[in-house]
Structure formats: structure tokens, C-alpha cells
Known about the structure:
The protein is of the alpha+beta class and 191 residues long. It folds into 2 domains: 14-96, Arc Repressor Mutant, subunit A, CATH 1.10.10; 99-187, Alpha-Beta Plaits (2-Layer Sandwich), CATH 3.30.70.240. The chain has helices at 14-26, 38-43, 54-66, 85-92, 123-135, 153-163, 182-187; strands spanning 29-32, 70-75, 78-83, 111-116, 139-142, 145-148, 170-175. Residues 1-11 and 29-35 have low confidence and may be disordered. The strands form 2 sheets. The protein has a 4-stranded antiparallel β-sheet, covered by helices on one side. Residues 105-177 form the Transcriptional repressor PaaX-like central Cas2-like domain.
Amino acid sequence: MEKYKYYFRKPRSEITKDILTLLLISGGIAIAATSPYFGIAIWKNLKNRNKYPKRRVSSKFCELRKRGFIILEKDAHDIKLALTPKGEKIAGYMQINKMKIQRPKKWDSLWRVLTFDISNLKTTQRNAIRKLLKEIGFQCLQKSVWVHAFDCKAEIEIINDFFGLKENEMRLIVAKDIGDSRELKRKFRLS
């Protein structure tokens, strides 16, 4: 799994989300400079292109450019449209909805035990981490002790990076035996 950051803050409008997603996926698009409708040309490649009026799409591209989320680079007869680092940061939050821990064909009989100890000053972070862990399939053993049956090291690194946690605040332990695990095996559908 490629390492990248996840962000929770969402753009206010769906059109902004769709445009940023398109640019994030494409990594930048080259468009003929002779066309004044560069935003509309890009939009034709998106599956939801009939969702918004062309004028609104064009004005949203201009707004995103003014806010510093996208950049136009002119090169001879081409214009390259790409996300700026600021735009990548805003668009990156959308990846959190897609984060999943892959289920292998055969379970390696190891448990991934995640412990975290986050101070009371970071209550919002702690609650967000708990919610995220539930969404990606972790099971709670205790308040700050979670377990998963499959390899999730890359996902935990992403969570650590996003929340800016230190090694002593969140640890992933790989264990062979965690005691009575019948209920966990049932929840993870393991034999």
C-alpha cells in the first residue's frame, strides 16, 4: 500500500470535491492552450460531468486557481493543470473513505494489537482515531487497545502521520496469542 496522508476536512461543495478528486487521480492534465474552456475539457473526462452546468464548472476552476489549489503551467502550445501541494492536502482527505485493510487468502494466525495513549488535551484526536479504527475493521478489546487479524502496518503508519503521533503514543504489536480469541475469530470470520 502506498503511503499517503488522509484528511478529514471536506470541501464545502460537491463540485469542488469532484474537481479535486479528478486532479488527484490524474496527477495533472495537459490541455490545448488554444481552448479557453480548459475546465470544461477536463470535466468531459469525469463520469459525473452532467451533474453540473458547464458555466459552474468553469467558474469553480477559476476559484480553485485563485485560492491556490490548482496551478496552470504554460508550455508552448499546452497548458498543464495540476494540484498544488495545498490542493493535494485538501484533496487527500478523500482517500480516508477508501482506506481498507486487505484480507489475505490465508490468515497468518497473528494478531495485530494496537495500543494508544493520547493525553486528555487531544480528546478530539483520540475520538477521531477510535472512529477511524472502527471504520477500517479493528475490534476494541479495551478503551485504547484494539485488535485486527490482518496486516495493517501501512494503514497504522498513515494514521500516525496524519495525527502527528509519536511512537510512544501509538504502538502496533504483532502477537501469536492474545488469550481467548474465539469471539474475535468469529468477528473476523476466521476458522
